[in-house]
Amino acid sequence: MAVGPHSPLPLFTDHIDQLQAVGEIGVMLLLFLVGLDVQPKSLWSMRRLVFGLGPAQYLLTAAAIMALMVWVSGLVWKSALVVGLGLAMGSSAIAYPILEARGEGASPQGRATVAVDIFQSLMIIPVLALVPILGAGHSDSGSTPT
């Protein structure tokens, strides 16, 4: 989002395909790593956290970011929604090492963190499918979206 062709200050417009390939490889490796750490039995035991706390955290955070973007920068609600949905996602690459270093993986806070991260991982596909739908009214000339 920050360096792509649709950002406010596109930095790497000539290398979009290469950046996309590197990003896809990174996502695959990250999901593989997460899959290695999560046992099906523990995943099943966390289903209430994943589908209870996960959506609550993600949707409330996305709504707060969206509202802030509309209020502060005056973005159109569709653009603010895309920004909110993207920025509400957390990073497993940051959360898991911290949990491991502190030995809090099995604690209630650690389980809640893992559950929220699992839900956010599940939301990646619907969010990526929603972005082109929300951007359908935008033109390439940079004029005001419809």
Task: Write down the domain tally.
Answer: 2
Global outline: globular
The SSE order reads HHHHHH
Count of β-strands: 0
Tell me roughly what share of residues is in helical segments. over 70%
Q: On the 0-100 scale, what is the average pLDDT?
A: 78
**Global structural class:** mainly alpha
Strand content: under 5%
Annotation field: number of helices: 6
Instruction: Outline the biggest β-sheet.
Output: none
Overall radius of gyration: 17 Å
List the uncertain runs. Answer: none
- State the distance separating the first and last CA atoms: 21 Å
Summary keywords:
146 residues; 71% helix
Quick summary:
The protein folds into two domains: 1-37; 40-135, no CATH class. Helix content is 71%, strand content 0%.
Can you describe this structure?
This protein is mostly helical and 146 residues long. The protein has two domains: 1-37; 40-135, no CATH class. Helices cover 71% and strands 0% of the residues. The protein has six helices and no strands. It has helices spanning 16-37, 40-45, 47-73, 77-87, 92-102, 108-134. Helix 3 crosses helix 4, helix 4 runs antiparallel to helix 6 and helix 5 (92-102) packs antiparallel against helix 6. The chain is globular and about 45 Å long. The mean pLDDT is 78.
Topology:
Elements: H1 16-37, H2 40-45, H3 47-73, H4 77-87, H5 92-102, H6 108-134
